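Q: I'm writing up a methods section and want to include an example of the input and output format. Could you take the sequence below and give the corresponding predicted structure tokens, formatted cleanly so I can copy it straight into the document?
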Amino acid sequence: MSVTPADDPRLTAMGLMAEVYLGLTAKMNAAFTASGLSEIDFETLIRLYRSPGRRLRMSDLAAQTSLSTSGVTRVVDRLEREGLVERVACATDRRASYATLTDAGAARLETVLPQHIEDIETWFTGLLPPERLEDFLASLRIIRDVVRPCATAGAMDLSDLSSRQS
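A: Here is the clean output for your methods example:
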């Protein structure tokens, strides 16, 4: 029995990934909306929150999100007007600036995080035993590093963090 192109397991993998992403997004957007954040607002704020000094160069923030450089500029402009982010000039490169999370931005994000983490546990990570989750995350990182090599731009290497804490 031959496999037709429509039965190719690669199509199944792609379809499952899309279905999972869309399903998770639908389940988790309610927590963002309740706090007055859009999905892209949350993505921007969480990237800054988890970055060294709670800041990223604008170009690195664009690389880490699903936004173009002009798109991230518009989002940061809006978040800046709301007092959640501020733009800080780079001291060593006049062409560059940083998006920096404000205390108000961190506070807003922290109102969403408990529910978001609970949703992640309920709809995602809690469905897998720890060893399968570890393997799954490793697999996702392999794929991410190929399809979005700039996704960790400006982020601190976790090995740097552990060596600083020693």
